[in-house]
Structures are given as structure tokens and as C-alpha cells.
Amino acid sequence: MFALLKRTIGVGEWFRKGLGVAVLVGVTAVSLGLDTGALAQLSSGSGGASIERGLLERLRPPAAVDQTSDAALPATGDSGAFIKVQAPAVPRFAPLSLPDEGAFPGFSGAVEWLNSPPLTAAQLPGKVVLVDFWTFGCINCRNALPHVREWNRKYKDQGLVVVGVHAPEFAFEKNINNVQRAVGELDVTFPVAIDNSFAIWRAFNNNYWPAQYFVDAKGRIRFHHFGEGEYEKSEQVIQQLLEEARKDAKAV
Q1: Mean pLDDT per 10-residue run, the chain (252 residues)?
Q2: Cβ(152)–Cβ(188) under 8 Å?
Q3: Model pTM?
Q4: Exposed (0-12), middle (13-18) or buried (19+): which is 34, by Cβ within 10 Å?
Q5: Any domain includes 74
Q6: Is the CB of residue 86 less than 8 Å from the CB of residue 70?
Q7: Which of the residues 52, 198, 203, 213 could staple to 131 if both were Cys, CB 3.0 to 4.6 A apart?
């Protein structure tokens, strides 16, 4: 009698656990607004695996629709016919306001150049110029550098000239051999002006590492950014200034 009672209690315990799980699943399904009809139609004689499979099929989220390409969907009321749905156009950024911030002062005062002969403002008309003030010991400069390298790679054939101005913060950063080693290690391939005397720094009225100045094809500074971040906006500035340069070249 005791053994029968123990088995009965065990069955009851399993029943209560199963009922609790079913309630939780039902509450979850209702809260998600899903079709709960499957819960009522499940046979009590079906195995646990079939119940699990049925719930997974019912609760699985709908497959994502690829919005990047045209899609063929069945026409309404005709499973054999298909209609072509055009993917929505990718929205373009609204043009940025890029006021004139002054004349491009050039690079007079550089004590040496790496990766290039000396450059002057007079050599760069018709080019969009990105001037990047940095120093190899600055962690913020190192964090921003991959973006500057990528802009140089993507847009140099479209008329962008990237120039790094290395302005040292500490004494060891004034050693040109150290700068040259860092330029190689950091894969900096664009021209680098060594500004050990801070002549270029003062000409730009700059006070920050890193700092980027964006110069249009007419030799006017149109945008600047200090520190890390806003990389998408900075790239949009490059694209917008390059587009301006193309329009101006066609108008001549």
C-alpha cells in the first residue's frame, strides 16, 4: 500500500511540473500575441519530443525579409503567379552645412617630411585635403588612425589628399627616427609633416590631439573635428567636398 501511494505521489509531482511548464508556455505565447491553438490541439498521448517540436515551430519568429534586393512574391489569390517587389531605395544623408572657417595655411615650418616630398598649399588647388594632427604616443590618435587610413585608401583616387601632421607631446616623440619607426608600425602610407616646432599647429590655431581639418578644393577650411568619434559624419564631409570639387571642375 505504501509503495502504491509513493508511486502515486511521484506521478502527481511530475504531473504538477508538466502542468506548470505548460502554463508558463501558454502565458508566454499569449503575451507575445502568438496563435495558442496548437496548445489546445496537442494530444496528451504524444511524446515530449513532439510537444517540444510543435511549440518551437509555433513560437519561431518569422524569417527576415531581405530588403537589399528585389524579391519575387506570390500574387494575391494565385499561388502560381509571382510579382516583383522593388526593394526600397537606400536613404541618402541630408547635405551638411559646411561654412567657411578660413584659409588653408599650408604646411610651412615642417622640419621634415615622411612618405612624400614637402607639400605646400600652392600645390594642392583642386584637391580636397584632410589634415590630421597626431602624435604616435597618443592613444586617442592611435584609435582614430585606422579611420584616417581607410579614408586615404577609399578616396585618394577621387581627389582626396591626406596629410598627417606629427606634433610631439613628449620629448621622445620629437626623435624623427622614433616617428619613422612608428609610421611603419602603424601602416601610415600618406604624407607626414614633422612639426617639432609647432609651426603648423600654431598656423591652424590648433589645441588638440587628434584633430582633423577638412579643406575644400578652393583652399578653404570647411569643417574640423577634435578627438575621437563622429567618423560617419567626417566621411560624409569628405564625400560632400569631393562632390563639390567635381561639380566645380565640370563648370569650368
Answers
A1: 45 50 46 42 42 47 44 46 49 84 97 97 95 98 98 98 98 98 98 98 98 98 98 98 95 81
A2: no
A3: 0.65
A4: middle
A5: no
A6: yes
A7: 213
